[in-house]
Design brief:
Rossmann fold, nine-stranded mixed beta sheet, 5 helices, 9 strands, UPF0340 protein FD14_GL000706, Antibiotic_NAT-like, DUF436
Length: 184
């Protein structure tokens, strides 16, 4: 798999995502990612550190430009724990757990993010504002309700299917409820 094609697809996908979605400043974007699936293999069977590095190094500057923080979902072997910056975990009140990602227990994305982050930590649960799933890793459990699918022209990164989510507050109250603040 050509790393430049992966980077170009990611850049296009995230550019289109942020043309449609505005996440809050200091919001949280979750990445679920299988380098094996990107390579056309079954999840966990062909973990590739170079693909992990390419994905993380492409995503981080784009998220930083939008003032959004990254959380990277780990694989099932670490119970889908999430890697993020300690400052983000502390600010959001997330409980930190003890595990260091490895290629076959966390995955290539977590290992790459661990190297790229200033002070990485793992947490068990987050409530992200949106996210991207590369390879059907099931990020929905980490995105707040109400989840809204976002469509981009990029349907695959390498051989891996992509899905994008954003979220909005729940609409409650029924037919008498008003959902927009009145003009002052």
């Amino acid at each position: 798999m050509e790393l430049e094609n992966i980077k170009a697809s990611l850049t296009t996908a995230l550019t289109e995502y942020f043309e449609q979605v505005t996440l809050p400043e200091n919001g949280l974007f979750v990445l679920g990612f299988s380098s094996s699936t990107v390579m056309g293999e079954w999840m966990g069977q062909a973990t590739n550190a170079e693909v992990g590095d390419a994905v993380i190094q492409t995503i981080l500057p784009i998220l930083n430009a939008h003032h959004v923080n990254l959380a990277v979902q780990g694989c099932q072997h670490i119970n889908r724990a999430l890697l993020l910056e300690r400052e983000v975990a502390d600010r959001r009140g997330y409980e930190i757990v003890s595990v260091v990602p490895a290629l076959h227990a966390g995955g290539a994305g977590q290992v790459a993010a661990y190297k790229a982050f200033k002070d990485p930590v793992e947490v068990e649960r987050i409530t992200a504002d949106g996210g991207m799933d590369i390879g059907d890793t099931q990020i929905g459990m980490h995105v707040r309700w109400v989840q809204i699918p976002v469509q981009t022209s990029v349907k695959e990164i390498g051989a891996a299917h992509t899905t994008f989510l954003t979220s909005r507050p729940k609409l409650i109250g029924g037919e008498r409820a008003i959902y927009e603040w009145p003009e002052k």
